[in-house]
Structure formats: C-alpha cells, structure tokens
C-alpha cells in the first residue's frame, strides 16, 4: 500500500550523459547506410523502470546493443510499444519536433494497453530534446535545412520473469535514424510518381477488431500483418487497404490512415471522409488528426482552385468507394503517416525508387477483388487536397512560409557545439 505513490516519476530534467568517444561517420543521402534504415546516430536515450523504485534517472549514452535476459517479457509476451516521430532541421536553422505531446500521450496509452508502466508523457519530448542537443548538430547540420531524422521511442517489458504476468521491469529507449528523403535522392521530376497502389484485404484477413488493440502502437500489431503485406507486395502493390466486417468497412492502409475526397451523391458537395476512432479499429495518427484540424479550419472555404470540403469521420465501406468511383464522384484519395516509406523490400538502388510515401501520399489505384479502381483519373481536374495539406504540414514541420512559430512545433534549444 502506498508504494505506487512513492516510486519515482519519469523525470527528464536531469539526465546522466556519457558522450561517445568514437563518433560514427554521418551517411550521405542515398548511401547504403542510410537506405538500410538501421544506421543510428551516435547516442541513444534510455530510462529504466522497476516496480519497486519506479523510473531511474534517464541516460544519454553511446548508441549500442541492449542487454536483456532471454526470458525478458517483451520477447515472449510482446510487452512492447513504440512511437514513430521525426526531428526536423528548419529553414530558420532550428530543430523542431511536430506535436511531440501527441506522440507522448499515445505512447502512454499504448503502454497501458499492454500493462507497461505509466509515465509523465510530457517528459518524452524533453528526453528527445536532450538527445538531439547532442546529436543534432552533426546529424542534421544547420546549413542543411529540410533534412530530418526518424525517431523511434520504444518501451519494452525487460524483466526476466517467464511466468505470464505484468512486467516488473521495463526499459524506455529512443534511437534516431537517418531516413532516406525522396526529395534528396533524385532531382524533382525524376523522383517517380508518388501514387500508391493499395490492395484491399480479403475477408479472411483482419488487422484489428472492436475490443482489440489495433488502436495502440504495439509491436504485436505489425508482425502478423506482414503476411498480407508480403502477399500484396508480391503482386506489385504497396500496401494493404485494411477492410473490416461483413459490410467491408474501409479502415486504414498499411501503417497509415486513409482519406477519400468524393462528391456526395445527394448534395453534389465535396466531402473529405476518413474512418472514425470510436470503434478502435484504426491507429489514431498524429498526421490524421492534423489533417482533420487543418481541413476543418482552412478548407471549409475554397483554397485557390480547390472547392470547399466538408470533413467527416464516419464508417464507410469499400462498396461506397466503388459506387462513387463508378459514378465518377471520386476526386482523390490519400494516405498519411509520419514515416516515409519506400516500396521495396530491403534495399533499393536509387533508380528503383519509383513509388514512395511522404507524410501525405495520393493513392493511384485500389484493387478490391477483381475491380481495379483508378483513383486519380476521374477527379484529376478537381484534385489537389493532398498536395495542399502536405504543403501546410511541411511549412509547420520545417518552420517556413510564415510558420516559424506554429503552436504545433516544439523547438529544441541549446544544441551543443559539435
Ligand atoms: C503509426 C501509424 C499510423 C500513422 O500515425 P502518425 O502518427 O500519423 O505517424 C497509422 N496507422 C498505423 C497502423 C500506424 O502504426
């Protein structure tokens, strides 16, 4: 009794720093090291938790392998959750995170879904800032605005207890990974078409279900989904469009949220539609939330040549998409998420980079059974919502076009000298 109240909170205001004495070469854009998606920066952040003491003092230390017992809870019972974020080098020279408390809160709710320890989620961004104060200057040079690193905060059950039980020990760690950026790899115009090919899931394949955990960023969601993903890739598709239920509701695509812009068949007005969060079938994306907020505030009136859209979160089926497509009412559809994904298996030379996903990526085709729906053609003259939303987001992320002080930005001050 009372032990919960006495254990230490996660506190990133004080961290133990051990600097690397063996700095690694920073990979060039498009190099095999960068394309490996596994080459991390010089340092990582860690914080250990035990049920008796709570959170220990976080550390920033040289990047290296972890040591955990073969009986560690995460290895057997998938007590693991993670986040995907980025740190951006702005056009004003500053380092920024985009809405990091949204990721902190989501990591906390994922942790709770799999009995990992609770923490003050605001501390996540502080810990990332401390890591980036050290690695930012070398890995995202000030004179190279527009570059970013992918951040992977992860929480694992690390205790050795093999009996099935809630973890008694846990480890939070954060690594930063240079990530290929399509705009750096090829000259504009040569970069290939970013339109994605989505393969709708078959009725016997389900990603998430009501009462399940598809709305949490748990590692347990992804391994099993790779079977369908691999099959989709084998027939030339980029991602699975996950359908759910007898009525084939459209949920999300791969590890990104899915949106469609179509004309309402009764009113003739344009709608931006995406699946709702209430039934817990989709991951509540930070990009999804931002797209909804931007569209609601900025797109209720026309923007340039774009007609106003009504923004709607509701269940909708692949049958509705198909009907709209047959009737020429599809304007465009797109997916959104933080990670930039390339469509190749493990390694791809520059020239093979044909399709990619970049915050917000238009969908080119959806295959449902034996129907191939071209999502670009019919609505081409009215499309452009994805491009506009992406431009707004990019300005906020990189502090440009008058968005240097946007409320969604968290600026990392106090970078150390190289
Ligand atoms: C991470 C993720 C997303 C996108 O979330 P963002 O916060 O926008 O990056 C969407 N769907 C799934 C299944 C995901 O894992």
TrEMBL record:
Enzyme superclass (EC): transferase
Cofactor(s) it depends on: pyridoxal 5'-phosphate
Cleaved signal peptide residues: none
Keyword Transferase on entry: yes
EC number: 2.6.1.42
GO CC annotations, alphabetized: mitochondrion
GO biological process, one term: L-valine biosynthetic process
N6-(pyridoxal phosphate)lysine: residues carrying this PTM: 217
Classification via PROSITE patterns: AA_TRANSFER_CLASS_4
GO MF term list: branched-chain-amino-acid transaminase activity
Family affiliation: Belongs to the class-IV pyridoxal-phosphate-dependent aminotransferase family.
Name under which the protein is recorded: Branched-chain-amino-acid aminotransferase
Organism: Aspergillus avenaceus
